Input
Amino acid sequence: MLSVRYRKVLALLLSLALVMSMAAISGCTPDDGEPAEEPTDDIQMGGTFKFYISQPAFIDPVNLQESEGTQVGQAVFDSLVTFDPLTSEVKPAAAESWESNDDATVWTFRLVPGAKFHNGREVTAQDFKYAWERICNPDNESEISYHLSAVKGYDEMQAGEATELEGVTVVDDTTLEVTLSYAFADFEYVVGHPALAPVPQEEVEADPAAFGKMPIGNGPFKMSEPWADDQYVKVEKFDEYYGQEPYIDGIDFMILADQDTAYLEFQAGNMDFVQIPTGQIQATIDEYGESPDGYTSNPGEQTILGTEQAVYFILLNNTDEVLQDAEVRKAFSLAIDRQAICDTIFEGTRIPASGIVPEGIVGFQEGGFEYSKYDPEAAKEVLAEAGYPEGEGLPVIKLEYNTGSGHEDILQLVQNDLKAIGIESELAGMEWAQYLDKLDAKEYQSGRLGWIADYPIMDNFLYPLFKTGSGDNYSAYTNPEVDAMLEEARKTVDDDERVELYQEIEKKIGEDAPLIPVMYYRHTRVASDRVMDGIFSPNGLFHFESVWLKQ
Amino acid sequence: MIKYVFRRILQMIPVFIGVTVLLFILRAPGVLPGDPVRMITGERPISDALREQIIKKHALDQPLHKQYYIYVTNLLKGDLGESYQRRTSVVDIFADKFPNTLRLALAAIVIEIIVGIAAGIISAVRQYSFSDVFVTLSTSVLVSVPVFWLGMLLQIFFGIRLKEWTGGAVFLPMSQMSSSQFPDWVHLILPAITLASVSTAYVARIMRSQMLEAMGQDYIRTAEAKGLTRRAVIFRHALKNALIPVVTFVGIDFGVMMSGAILTETVFSWPGVGREIFLAVGQRDWPVVMGGVIIIVVIVMIINLLVDLSYAVLDPRIRYGGAQE
Output
């Protein structure tokens, strides 16, 4: 038998071993992934795709708003049009063809005849009208009714003065005519939003709560069972789908509370598509290989890091005493080292923004905002010309932000950059709700905001953010020339001409530097090695129609 | 006894009113930032006409006391309102979540009681032995390990490494839905151990010190002198007296667990009440916050009552009710 002293030492060592083994487990590195494999042509049918999402707010189109619910919604529903998963160009979906009149105020959509809902009933133009009116009905308190704000009669419905959308006419079962209250040549992109899909009135009205949990759509996949709150949403292939039959049998959208847990599940082989946790980007690339185009995943090329249709910017209040001077704003913009922010804070998973419209949007141009680049010397000169040499005479600029999402780290770097050209600034963090209230009331000096595209069009970045009086124009920028050009662009039916005009508008706005684009977002996802030709689009939606699973 | 229970239940009423009033004051305009209409309609701007309609519908234009009256009247009918964010009934949301929380809490409490008490007794009875030093040191470690970290370690060890080492034969599920081949209770193992870890360590320590104290008492010496077996002395005499503080701790801990274990629930994606309320607070989803807190308050009050009543069983000197109190 061991002496008492030895036993105590042994106990101590055992306890130590416990601590060490904990550390050891966490430090282990997994085996190397499989070597890159050439994608084959023999597509295999079947299999269930396990897709990680966090808890959605809604999966019913009536309030389909955030990325997670929209992911499910786009699998279960088809809107009139859809977008090419790589080029974002508009393509037919529930509508086989469409056209507008000369000034883009009246749009006619012809539906695919014989397309069915998952309950077996044929989809008609009336179902679109019903679905859209359901969204605009103030009783439903939809957060996404603004998608339809261009449609004639929208304001009346929102105000509770009308029960129908005046501008939506059912010509016959397969023809839908939409009249807008203003010209909008990009409206065909708007109707591609997954929230604007048709819904069967009889199913909604039979039990609205049940429909919310188990919506019946017209898309390639139908719900297998009601959404299990905080657990999963399961969908399976819809046999009577009018479009191309998907290769996979179904999708299990697994709802996990924590992306670290999701990533562990992925590493254990239980998940096919997850978000990469912070700090793991390089390790993931090393182990699973990087997708060559940033969007398409095949074995050995599984890490998805393509640009997202979103931009992060510094907001400047253009009515502020100091910041109403465009020269000061330009100096501000030239002072910021965007690359340093992307590299030090985001492991290079974001890229410096050279304009307000990000990559992946039809018409994207490099250098859309003239002053959206890092040039501290030029910044100093501009500042001196504005009458503040070395920042002399400038008050301390207040940089406000919402706490808890890492913005402080970014703004601290901005603060240092500003200091380098002589501008003193102070940070002020607050709750998101309070922050939004301040932005709304324009009671702020400078701040931050992210903007994610609803549709892959330049208008989506330019009109809401810079049109005089727009509710999203938080910087209170106003330029009659730009306003006129924005209206003009919306009326321009020719696609190329319109895009050109928008590019011109972006440059024009950029000359005034009303706000400061900082970076474009990038995806940080990884797919399993059985995912073949899986495309995660720039708009953040997975293209389930083309993916297949290696059995 | 019945009188005592009745009185305790009556005492719950002012507590309940206090809590609901406090919650109502918190949501009064100007107390916490954030516009309630915005919480309902999202971040995009809305028209004034729509804003007015929403304010009317949710009675946000009424004075606070009137809103309180409406809320309590509905509450008495079993209606906790509708979530601002998800537009579903708050009662339904928690009816979904409470069974999960209860299962997890019960499993954790069972571990806490069995492991904690056993470890405490062993280390007290064999003071300064190998097992005592091991228990004392490992409980110190457990108490200082962050729960989420322990959870992730367990996940990596039992979910990934074990699977690799055994060629996929032996492993445990890392989150509630990860591997449907397991029976339901298996999913409980890792979260329950994680949730129980810190409390088990505390129970072991309380148990140890209480036992040591009890073992030094005169009546123990008497019992030993009577010639009772060591087993009888420990379990019949010392343990019963040493248990009271442990029961108090476990009871309070159970109440805490019932109000949700946010970290454990998050790491293991366990769909419980803690996370629901935590998220609702972040989204200023007042009906969910209020409903959740009210349900928890009621449960905690009931558990406290049960704990108090259990003292009478453990210690014959404690009697409730009447003039003896």
Remarks:
- Residues 419 and 425 of chain A are 7 Å apart (CA to CA).
- Chain A touches chain B through 60 residues (CB under 8 Å).
